[in-house]
Amino acid sequence: MTRTVKDSDMNGTPMVRAEGVHKSFGAAHILKGIDLEVAPREVFCLIGPSGSGKSTFLRCINHLEKINAGRLSVDGELVGYRQKGDKLYELKDSEVARKRRDIGMVFQRFNLFPHMTAIENIMEAPVQVGGETKAVARARAERLLDRVGLADKAGHYPSRLSGGQQQRVAIARALAMEPKLMLFDEPTSALDPELVGDVLDVMRDLAQDGMTMIVVTHEMGFAREVGDALVFMDDGVVVESGHPREVLTNPQHDRTKSFLSKVL
Amino acid sequence: MTVDIHKSDGPQDGPRDVTRVAPESIKAIPVRHYGRYVSAVVAIGVLVALVYAFAQGDVNWDAVPDYFFDSQILTGVKNTVVITVLAMLLGVVLGIVLAVMRLSKNPVTSAIAWFYIWFFRGTPVYVQLLVWFNLGIVFEYINLGPIYKDEWSSFMTPFLCALLGLGLNEAAYMAEICRAGLQSVDEGQTEAAHALGMSHGRTLRRIVVPQAMRVIVPPTGNEVINMLKTSSLAVAVQYTELLRATQNVSQTSGATVEMLFLAAVWYMILTSVLSIGQYYLERYYARGSSRSLPPTPFQRIRVNLLSLGRPKGGVA
Q: A243 burial class (0-12, 13-18, 19+ CB within 10 angstroms)?
């Protein structure tokens, strides 16, 4: 069953802390002041209608998007900036890249590297970024492939794998850098229904191991069963938050109710 | 058809009958395409007239094989290949630099790259070659400070004129080909690489460029073939490539038209070799993108030879 978040974790530094985060693309105001905290070892689910800003917020966490206002920090350190006194300094590209190594990300469209085999995809970052030897990286890549149930697909190019298999390789690729936080951007939305289960199994297994996960999802069953916290976003703001079972079974706001009535 | 109805009430011999009674093939009078006969006759007539004209002309055909491996001609062939390879190399390297400059977020480098491409694509390569050749009229010396100093005429050799004229022009075209290739790679690839903590440079080198090659290689092959032919314009700057070599021979031998035919044959041989090389290069960069590669001509010939001995339909 779901793990209960330990009190000691809650009292420590949150893994992610957002305070009044705003983001706009030109005239489009996507995030209108997001405040939330994600505790270590927590499975944090983000739900909401499309265009509500959940994916954008996720991409802000590893600085794929720059926020316009507010403060966003991961493990106590600001994302994309360094604070000296009351001044903010933008981080260099190399510093941003170094911080991203600790944050794994899984995309809706998998984004595997098509010119590399499954195992080469997983080895790429440890060898190129982590400076590991190929032998060490290969050994861990094999373990990770085994963990996601694809040990026999190591030499396959992504074009020869099904969507579900590609997404599991993508999860293994993100895990290869041994991140302390995993971001999932609608990981099952591009999959055929019968392939969703395998991917969710891998994510459930990961949650059991105590990985901190932020999951943008439409899988309410997964959120209810595995999630420790859930946030409903709409139109760039957090409408409602709480424990998944409470929010999903007993929503308080009208917008949450109308959204859930459409998806459940 | 009555036959079918009759057969269907005997179920056990049904399948056997199907194989025995083949459907009656249609026997109809085909439409006569008179236009095709007419156009074929006209085309053959024109061809015959052309051959006749050349047969009547005072062409000394023997001169072509006689001079085919003449040492002057072979030097010309060698120089044509050398200038093609080097000018292409200059074009590719400079083209990649220009493409990266063009796509960079720095407005100054991007504008400079834009201007370069605009200038070199906007002027004929023949004019560019003549400009390089005649720069000696405006510059007496070349002076690169402490590195190099010489008289212009001994610095700007015909070879260097041809190399710069052809290579710098090619760079503008290669820049556009490379830019299209780099932009063809899905943005999700860059994001995935960045999310793994890869730097911009490493993302470009490890992830984007290998995928862009599939788009870049085919037009680059065309550029090489074009370059081989365009190198004949280097005649204008006194560079002794294939065309100039044949002209030199024709001055001594008097066989002007024959030597032009000879040059044409050599060019066709060289471009044919390049086409074959391009085919295999494209196959290499298609790996991972298509599930099974089409067979090479050699593989196809081998399969055809093997199946010759078997009766038709033997595969099933």
A: middle
